Amino acid sequence: MAKAIMVQGTMSNAGKSLLAAGLCRIFKQDGYRVAPFKSQNMALNSFITEEGLEMGRAQVMQAEAAGIAPSVLMNPILLKPTNDTGSQVIVNGEVLGTMNARDYFQYKKNLIPDVMKAYGHLAGENDIIVIEGAGSPAEINLKDNDIVNMGMARMAHSPVLLVGDIDRGGVFAQLIGTVELLEEEERRMVKGLIINKFRGDKSILDPGVEMLEKRSGIPVVGVAPYMDIQVEDEDSLTERFDRKQNVGLIDIAVIRVPRISNFTDFNPLESIPGVSLRYVQHVSELKNPDMIILPGTKNTMEDLLWMRESGIEASILKEASRGKIIMGICGGYQMLGETLSDPHHVEAGGTIKGMGLLPVDTIFAEKKTRTRVYGKFLPVEGELAPLGGAALEGYEIHMGETVLKGNARHCTCIEDRVSGECKEDGAFCKNVLGTYVHGVFDREETARAVLQVLGNKKGIDISNMKEVNFASFKEQQYDILASELRKHLDMKKIYEILEQGI
Questions:
Q1: Residue 295, Cβ neighbours under 10 Å: how many?
Q2: Which of these, 188, 225, 195, 229, lies nearest to 210 by C-alpha position?
Q3: Around 183, how many Cα atoms within 13 Å sit in the side-chain half-sphere?
Q4: pTM of the prediction?
Q5: Max CA-CA distance within the chain?
Q6: pLDDT of the residue at 392
Q7: Which of 330, 398, 411, 429 is catalytic?
Q8: How are the residues of the chain apportioned to helix, strand and coil, as percentages rounded to the nearest 5?
Q9: Residue 366, CA distances (Å) to 83, 346, 401, 441 in order
Q10: 438 an active-site residue?
Q11: H/E element holding 433?
Q12: Under a CB-based contact definition with an 8 Å cutoff, are residues 377 and 411 in contact?
């Protein structure tokens, strides 16, 4: 069986996911078979495996760092919030149902066999498992039947590295306070502390590190710097939304709806020099982009109503009437249509009017579509013509079926990798297009075609704007991450912790 090491944090967004990915890459570089694992993940960014199963995006990123294919074994439980008090519960890649927080809290212990079966499979196939916790292990109201922090460490017999975020301030109180709130057995499982996201002269921090070790009785195994590594974010706590940047030669605005999902779709566009990609939440932030994208969402109808009430919908309709390129992905595609109907109460129930930019109707179904696809853009007319023939590859996750009407035409021809079925997808009409395919910009051909559409419209030469081979770009980022962590973590001590276990 594999040896395990677990990364827990003093809070959400302390940097657990990135540090776990960095450890996966380091262990891989050192010749070990390594896999990531997170028993329970709560995020709206998800991924569809080759088998058509759904898992959290963070473990996909960590699997890439480990150099292996993602598997639902790495994330047996995924919670996708549907509102402030409930989530869709996905177990082993399939929808179990929707539960409110209290019901799930009482039910989750029933999922321990699923968690341990998945973990056992991974541990039997690898040398090292890097386990990620969730939130904080010191959430005393959630400790009963814990299956993701100390409860998981106990089940996996895994030593724990506890991470604190110094960038938010109060890192010593974070770490000491968390350790103090743990039970004695749990404290003994914490074998190392890590201060994360440090900026500045580390020598100034040394007295604090010494005090931290003395007060906690646990060694500090690293002070990791703040790193601007371009890998995929786990959820809406991402700092990407608040990033300020100058408007580029090509400016793209993504509408930041309240329940935005799978915003990793846009990472390839962000990586292209000369492209600015901004997440817009208020009308005043929209300004004058070259393209507006409506992203995926976990609650299409409520997010459309939010856009309507906030005035963003009216601004988009105005820009569309002026010929601005408008694109919708998944839930964003559904919003662009004429009607959205929910006869089975998958979301809010009833029927609402769409934005009317595409002559299509969407009806929400009880069964979720989950599959990987590949194909190409069909010939399209007018300003969108450069997209014709561009290769695409990605995945679908949606609960609705969209039917074309009037003069709308499909914009892609794709093959379902799970069923083998070929079908036409999406729709376009003049300057507006929509698709159900997530990851549509990952292929260089599609990213280049989008730039060509926008460059032609602005009358600018985009030949010097080189699209990035996104797979190679991510590999470089994982190597940079591992290199930086090797400089700032005591890997000799971490290997000792790994060997000794608990």
A1: 25
A2: 195
A3: 9
A4: 0.87
A5: 73
A6: 93
A7: 330
A8: 35, 30, 35
A9: 18, 6, 10, 28
A10: yes
A11: strand 432-435
A12: yes
- The structure tokens listed for 421 are 């079925």
Per the document, the length of the chain is 502
Nearest alpha carbon to residue 331 among 283, 253, 399: 399
- Active-site choice (24, 411, 438, 488): 438
Tell me the residue ranges of DSSP E strands in 299-385: 325-329, 339-342, 350-353, 360-377
Residue 375: its pLDDT value, please?
A: 96
Q: pLDDT tens, 415-450? A: 999 899 999 999 999 999 999 999 999 999 999 999
CA pair distance 81, 45, nearest whole angstrom: 11
> What is d(CA 477, CA 229) in angstroms, rounded to the nearest whole number?
6
> 443 with 390: CB under 8 angstroms?
yes
Q: Known catalytic residue: 398?
A: no
Residue 311 phi/psi, 5-degree rounding, is 90, -5
Q: Are 171 and 14 in contact (CB under 8 A)?
A: no
The DSSP H or E segment spanning 84 is none
Structure tokens given for 19: 């540090």
- Name residue, tokens 């997530």: 438
Cβ atoms of 399 and 369 closer than 8 Å: yes
Per DSSP, helices labelled H in 9-148 are 16-29, 57-66, 101-107, 112-125
Element (H, E) at 9: strand 3-9
**Whole-angstrom distance, CA of residue 379 vs CA of residue 388:** 4
Q: Which two tokens stand for residue 436?
A: 């159900």
Find residue 361's DSSP bridge partners.
339, 403
CB count in 10 Å sphere of residue 109 = 13
Provide the H-helix boundaries in 294-430.
Answer: 300-310, 312-321, 331-335
Name the residue among 128, 145, 138, 222 with its Cα closest to residue 186.
138
Pairing of strands 432-435, 427-429: antiparallel
pLDDT digits (tens, 9 = 90+) for 311-361: 999 999 999 999 999 999 999 999 999 999 999 998 889 999 999 999 999
